[in-house]
Amino acid sequence: MRGMIGKKIGMTQIYLDSGKIAPVTIVEAGPCVVTQVKTEAHDGYDAVQVGYESRKKKHVTKPMEGHYKKAGVDLQKTLAEFEIVPGFEYKTGQKFTVSLFNEGDKVNVLGKSKGKGFAGVIKRHNFHRPPITHGQKHTLRHPGSIGQASSPSRVFKGMKMAGHYGNSRVTVQNLEVVKIVPEKNQIFIKGAVPGANNGIIYISK
């Protein structure tokens, strides 16, 4: 399997073997249980579906309850699909832990970024302020002109403007696994990963 579901615990710093200090994010990776094995013949593509964290029956729909019952696993809180490793035989009910990773591995981490509400163009898109001389009044943080001339007489789609900032899926690539703590199912990833503490993240190799 090429990845796991995890939970962001928080950030700290550790000393590397070289003596340098490194900022790291502590991630609880798994254990993840296989809930379905998808095949080219049956589903049109090869993948392995895994679940993370159990949840109460009252929070699961009837179809999903049947899905877990068929797999013979407990009710799961989060599901995700990952690429398979060719030649490895996957079975429903299998559990994967942090042993999937090794120190020095490069991983991509996907999570939902912190929501920051409505933000202007300077905070949201890194716009610069206009000159504050030559008769400029009350428009220090305004976006400036957004329209066109008589042709095409409209504002183009995708124009960078003020709006909802954050609370979107973000992937950070090529982060390094610097430490693994098997007894706590934790891995230390160098650098920052998206989202708030206790947020669900997806780690792929």
Span between termini: 9 Å
Helix content percent band: under 10%
Which ranges are low-confidence, i.e. pLDDT below 50, for 5 or more consecutive residues?
Answer: none
Structural class of the helices, strands and pairings?
mainly beta
Order of helices and strands: EEEHEHEEEEHEEEE
Strand order of the largest sheet: 1-2-11-10-7-12
- Report the total helices: 3
Mean pLDDT: 91
Q: What overall form do the CA principal axes indicate?
A: extended
Largest sheet: 6 strands, antiparallel, barrel
Provide a concise account of the structure shown.
The protein is mostly beta strands.
What does this structure look like?
By secondary structure, the protein is mainly beta. 9% of the residues lie in helices and 39% in strands. The protein has 3 helices and 12 strands, in the order βββαβαββββαββββ. It has helices at 40-43, 62-71, 121-125, and strands at residues 3-15, 21-29, 32-38, 47-54, 76-82, 95-96, 106-112, 118-119, 163-164, 169-181, 186-190, 200-204. A 6-stranded antiparallel beta barrel has the order 1-2-11-10-7-12. A 4-stranded antiparallel sheet has the order 5-4-3-6. Strand 1 and strand 2 form a beta hairpin. The model has no long low-confidence stretch (mean pLDDT 91).
Give keywords.
205 residues; mainly beta; six-stranded antiparallel barrel; four-stranded antiparallel beta sheet; 3 helices; 12 strands; 9% helix; extended
